[in-house]
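Data availability (excerpt). The following record was deposited with the supplementary files.
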Amino acid sequence: MSRRAFALAALSTVTATGSATANTDAVPGTAGHRHAVTGMRGVWLATVANRDWPSRPGLTAAEQRAELIAHLDAAVRDRLDTVIFQVRPTADALWPSPYEPWSQYLTGTQGQDPGWDPLGTAVEEAHGRGLRLHAWFNPYRIANTTDRTTLIPSHPARRHPEWAVAYGGKLYYNPGLPEVRAFVEDAILDAVRGYAVDGVHFDDYFYPYPVAGQTFDDDEAYARYGGGFADRAAWRRHNIDSLVLETAAHVRRIRPAADFGISPFGVWRNAATDPRGSDTRAGVQTYDDLYADTRKWVRRGWIDYIVPQLYWNIGFAAADYAKLVPWWAEVARGSRTRLHIGEALYKAGAAGQPAAWQDPAELSRHLTLADAYPQVRGHVFFAAKEVGADPIGAMARVVADHYRHRARPPR
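Predicted structure:
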């Protein structure tokens, strides 16, 4: 079966009501796994709102490049092997894209050419240091404001205003429109075709996180496309399933050696909602609130790896790291999808965090706990700024306790 046929066949297992067909928890065998990668020591390098890089918009090309290389050098210093570089933070681009404008986080002005190619440089410099470079895309976020006039006139969301939904003070593409999904995939795949990336990465934003008292207005799209589904929630999950399956198939066809991975919010569903869920009391559940059936993606082997964001300390009452790791390990048991754990390095030593996060050893204890579960095949740290600064030495403790030897270079 071709890769495209595989995606279509997988998608067809979702019925018109949005519920899975029989054998919901079927796990494909691992014989078809395409990669020899056995683990991941990763770091997220975030660009949205200049979170990690560049330190501020408007730096010269040389200054931006120097800061980027410093982050890569910090990853090497801490014996990491993968950098997950955010190249499409808000329906924009950190490479010369024919689909979307240059990111405002580079120059301060959306659409302005920064005078160099950040993604191309990141790939070249990462590979030169023995690092993998995964390109990180946010699929649906357009802007951190609802004011469309802040977008340049040629922006797709201004040329197609019917594609966009204002919600919670931000602007999003509507996942319920097939033309939106096709456009988002095209924009992402342009980078996959043009650069020797080692992976394609989605974060936790699918449908937006719920905002009290507000409604995501997709009534028209639901009336047009949701007729065969049991309810709006099932239709929304189908839309996100389609994005995941189609992107996976395209990536495998265009760049077979690349991985496709996703880093969702760490709770699929609470056990009080669904007996298959985790022993948690999280206020957000990805299945119900973001319409992302992350458990299904792993059980059916739709993606190459998953990095649930387990951004809580051991013993945290509502979402205990020590309970979520074994839950995710059981979900991944027997699946071709590799399990890595997302770690909240940014909380170490941060003001207002629980006492556990003031202890430099907390993160190291996370890795020790996870080592007891063979399904856990690596960790990814949020984020690059904290890897570089390491304010209380939490990352240094992880390196000393767990990363005494350098990671094997990627094949």
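Summary of structural features: The chain has one domain: 3-17+39-138+178-402.
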